[in-house]
Amino acid sequence: MLGTEGAPERRRLRGRRARTVDSAEPEPVPTSRATVVRPDPFASAEEARAWLAALRGDEDALDAELDAALRVLNRALRARRAATADPYLAEVAAAHALATRVGYGPGEAVADGRYGEALELPGGGGRRPRRSMEAPEERYAALLGARDQALVGEELVLRARADLGAGRPREAALQARVALEALIAELGSAPAATLGEHRASVGEAANAALRGELPAEREGELRAAVAAMEAALRRHRMRG
Description:
- By secondary structure, this protein is mainly α.
- The protein has nine helices and four strands.
- The chain folds into two domains: 2-7 and 27-124, no CATH class; 136-239, no CATH class.
């Protein structure tokens, strides 16, 4: 269930001409609320309370609930993107949320953003990022200042990882085949030799994706190949 609250949506400028303004004050914007509701209700209030109490003490289970909800939401956004043919309608991650809550309550109340009881996850929800020796802010500045250049394969690997995370292995397989060839061409002989070991498995996964759903074995090989590409990119960034 999707809703909008907060500031009224800004109206489109009338006509085709730009307006003359004398300030650049920020415009009020609406806040979107997405609520993912399970199709099967709890049998009783006691069962609902027990479910939430179990989540409170199990971080992995809480993350699993959030991941499942994000998949539903992103599937809806993907359908909207296809229906409107809008390539810029992006999917979302837990870190993008202003607030993330997991709870229960009567159906109409939950749809309106009200709960019988709920947990609010810190920092928008989701697992904390792993510590890394990389310095993303320094590289970001280097990319903006044209002191470094992003590889074509970097973007393609990110798309493959996003597809895997969203439960779209067919799309991930097709992205991974192009990403692998791009990185082999861009990273040089040593990384290319290591990544070349995944050529056959990625190619077979991509061919299987063209025919239909990927067998579990092919998906496992695909995940290993994407992880190998990510590792090669991390080494490339550390050397840079």
